[in-house]
Each structure stands twice: as C-alpha cells, then as structure tokens.
Prior knowledge:
mainly alpha
Amino acid sequence: MQNSALCSGSAILDHSHAGYYGDKGAAIIEHTLIALFLASAELTAAIWPLPLTQFMTYFMVPYVATLLIADDYSPTTVVKAHKIMVASSNAGSLIHPTNDDDTELEEIFHRNIVTFQLK
C-alpha cells in the first residue's frame, strides 16, 4: 500500500524539488548534504521514522534550494523564494536534468568526496 502523503499531486511531492536548479541541482545539493552530515545513530534517531534518503529528498533539498533561491533574489523573503522554487520546478527539471550525458555531476560528486574525506 502506497503512502497517500506521497501520491502524485500531494503537497509533499509538489514541494520536494529544487526549483529552477532542476534535478541536477537537487542531486548536487543532496550529495553535498550527505557528505557533510554522514549517517549516524544521532541523525537516524533525530529524523526517525524517515530514512535519510527521504529526509534529504522531502525536507533538506527543498529547504536548501529555497535558501539558495532567496540568495539569488536578495533581498527577498524565504516565503517568496519558496513560491519561486515551486513555480519554477517544472522548468528546472527540463533545463537541468540529471541524465544529460555530461560528466558535470560525476565531477562535482568526486570533488565532494575528496573535499570531505580530507577533513
């Protein structure tokens, strides 16, 4: 049985994007957050009952994308940036897909791994 909160057209799915940063931007944000905040017993307990991937996808990625959009449109409010994020999500997915045959994502992921392993 599928969770009704995650069905198509739900507010959670409608707001779980990275706005005009698209799917590629969402992947970069998620990978960077995972590198910064390695899974631990404390983190798992804090976000329970969600697994880390769902917490990142539905909460952290949209939150960070909203803050980045607010910075892009400075001065603006986080509420206005969130509205921009939601309104621009479809365009972002078309402009910045993850499967566009370039190596940009792999290069960014590699830099994240090297950067965070050194600390």
